[in-house]
Amino acid sequence: MATAPLEDQRRLLDVQALDTRVQQLAHQRKNLPALTKLTELDGRIADLRASLVESRTRVADLKRELTKAESDVEQVRNRADRDQKRLDSGGVGAKDAVALTDELRSLAARQAALEEVELDVMERLEAHQEALATVEAANGELVAEKAKVEAERDAGWAEIDAQIQAIAGERAKAVDGLDTALVTLYEKIRVQQGGTGAALLNGNRCDGCRMDLPPADLATIRSAAPDAVVRCEECGRILVRGAGATTGAAAG
């Protein structure tokens, strides 16, 4: 059975309290409300992204469609202007004048039809631009909210990290001077037992696993020398005996 000064064993509970506090802070760090909020916001932004891409694509397509419609109208208008100038110049014969007049009539009809197409595209583009503006505004609000929540998260992390750093300083002082073998055993058990390597023997109960110990185990523990490092038979943690919990020869 390993041994270590009883006072060192009792001081080990101070170390354990600090380690437990760090473990709690680490859990708190991983479960900040801001993190849950960020996950929700990321989901909403992702859902909106598809609509945003679709709306931007549609607006871009309509802009190209409008450019083509405007070009088509301009081509017909330019052709009509050239024909009208030829006709107005008086330098064409009667037959050509009739042909130009017919063509101008046809071009006018063609221009009117193309302008209807142009107007339709403009109206559809305007509607989609309004829809895009709405989606972009919603996206902007979500992004701004995410930035705000990220700042809250970072502030929360910074506060917790500062506490952990302060506790690390306290722990270094608490461990200083303790029996080296005792600390090594404690660290090993702490890793194996999810963060708790030492627990108080609280009456008949191990505060580590919260189990009442059998009378035979209690008798063995209480009869052990004060400097004996005893362990819970249920969970394997170091059991630290309080004042009056030892009856070994060395205690008397």
Automatic annotation (TrEMBL):
One family name in Pfam for this protein:
CT398_CC
Q: Does the keyword Repeat apply?
A: no
Q: Where is this region: Disordered?
A: 71-90
Q: Which UniProt keywords apply?
A: Coiled coil
Domain (C4-type zinc ribbon) spans: 205-239
What sections of the sequence does the record tag as coiled-coil? 125-152
Keyword Coiled coil in record = yes
> Entry's InterPro entries?
CT398_CC_hairpin, Oxidative_Scav/Glycosyltrans, Zf-RING_7
Stretches assigned to the CT398-like coiled coil hairpin domain: 15-194
Basic and acidic residues bias locations = 71-88
Q: What is this protein called?
A: Zinc ribbon domain-containing protein
- Protein source organism: Promicromonospora alba
